[in-house]
Specification:
It is a single chain. This protein is of the alpha+beta class. The protein has 2 domains: 204 residues, no CATH class; 195 residues, no CATH class. The chain is 53% helix and 20% strand. Strands 2-3-8-5-7-6 form a 6-stranded mixed barrel. A hairpin with a 2-residue loop joins strand 6 and strand 7. The longest helix is centred in the C-terminal third of the chain and has 45 residues. The chain is elongated and about 100 Å long. The two termini are 34 Å apart.
Length: 415
């Protein structure tokens, strides 16, 4: 069986000998350190990807992928706009909406709200609100009956339930014989939803589009048209295309702009965590430097003999690089396998640990996401494994170069 000389000697040096058990021990620690770092990186990034995906789905359960708005704050010909964009192959659905703000009161309880007027039959085309109902459903919103659907946290704050009456105050005034009074309207709670994000569950209400138009005196005008796309990541591109297609008659926006700060913060957290955990791999990888330096010192006479037999300095350098790369390959391979297994099973392992120790990592009364989600991406696995192996290769260069500079006469002088 043919094996190059450098590879053969390098693999021989990786085996423990009677006089260098300590070097082999450090090699083992370096290998395990690389494996641990790679496993931690893959698992943590998978969990953070899972959190990002979960939050994005919850946000996009309420927020449209693309929004088309009128230039003067109103859209008069929304049916024509909805029909025009529905022909696009990337658009799954379109629905009109009214956006406003108000104040909801019940007895002595008061809460500011974000109001959205919708058509219940069309809303399911652009959002998941219909699937998030705890009580009632969106079809309970009927034009002229002034029903209202509210979030679970808002219902708790106001102390209301299905069938209760609440008063909605809007920032518009009515002129009466006794002066200017704020506009008020009594609504009946016909549904309660829970998105799973406090921002929406505590300050978001839904009205029928016709009721919202009457309340805000908008006649047949709406705020805009909301679109749902086949691929949510096409939203910025499609928004730009629609802006050009409409020749400036309407304004377009997408979910990446509306929540840019939030998703930028999540991405920054992922980047910081990646760098911090990569330091674990870097420390383990550069332990290889001390391992190979001691190995070069221990094998001084062997190197000198090989040099006298005609082996080149480049071949000597290759011998020690082979040894370091073997440590890196084995450590990276073990870490990758461990990381993949842990990332794929973290949603099962964490509940088992919680049950065994009787603890809860994400308490339901504090966090809306009570389970650790995981979204392992093969691109992350490949990137982490490649960087880990590259660090081990870099770590071998200096010790191997130092070994290649060994002078046979100097090394054998006192042998």
């Amino acid at each position: 069986m043919f094996r190059p000389l450098e590879l053969f000697i390098g693999l021989r040096y990786t085996r423990a000998k009677r006089r260098n058990h300590f070097i082999s021990f450090i090699s083992l620690i370096s290998m395990l350190g690389i494996a641990l770092g790679v496993t931690a990186l893959i698992t943590v990034l998978s969990v953070m990807n899972g959190f990002e995906k979960e939050l994005r789905e919850r946000i996009l359960g309420v927020v449209a992928h693309v929004t088309i708005l009128g230039e003067n704050g109103g859209l008069h010909d929304w049916p024509a706009v909805a029909a025009a964009v529905s022909g696009n192959k990337d658009v799954l659905g379109a629905a009109p909406y009214i956006h406003a703000e108000g104040m909801l009161t019940q007895g002595s309880s008061v809460s500011g709200t974000v109001i959205r007027g919708i058509l219940p039959a069309e809303e399911s085309k652009v959002s998941q609100l219909g699937t998030k109902m705890l009580q009632g459903n969106l079809d309970n919103l009927h034009a002229g009956e002034y029903g209202i659907v509210i979030g679970s946290e808002l219902a708790f704050t106001l102390g209301v339930d299905m069938g209760d009456k609440v008063t909605l105050t809007v920032p518009q005034a009515s002129v009466t014989p006794v002066g200017i009074l704020p506009r008020l309207k009594r609504f009946t709670v016909v549904g309660v939803f829970e998105i799973g994000m406090y921002e929406y569950d505590s300050a978001f209400v839904l009205l029928h589009l016709d009721d919202a138009q009457r309340l805000f005196r908008m006649q047949d005008t709406v705020t805009g048209v909301r679109l749902k796309l086949d691929d949510l990541f096409l939203a910025p591109q499609l928004a730009r295309e629609l802006q050009q297609e409409f020749s400036g008659r309407y304004l377009t926006s997408d979910w990446t702009r509306q929540h840019a700060n939030f998703f930028r913060a999540v991405q920054m957290e992922k980047t910081v965590m990646f760098v911090i955990l990569l330091l674990i791999v870097a420390v383990a990888a550069f332990n290889i430097v001390s391992t190979l330096v001691m190995m070069v010192t221990d094998k001084h006479s062997d190197i000198a003999i090989l040099r006298t037999l005609g082996i080149s300095p480049g071949s000597v350098m290759t011998i020690f690089m082979v040894q370091g790369c073997v440590i890196g390959i084995v450590g990276t391979l073990l870490g990758t396998i461990g990381g993949i297994m842990l990332a794929l099973n973290v949603e099962t392992l964490v509940p088992a640990i919680e049950q065994f120790f009787g603890i809860k990592f994400l308490a339901a009364d504090v966090y809306y996401i009570t389970e650790l989600p995981s979204d392992m991406r093969w691109s992350d696995v490949l990137k982490i494994s490649s960087i880990a192996f590259l660090l081990t290769v870099i770590a071998t260069v200096y010790p191997a170069w130092r070994g290649a500079r060994t002078q046979p006469a100097e090394a054998l002088r006192y042998e």
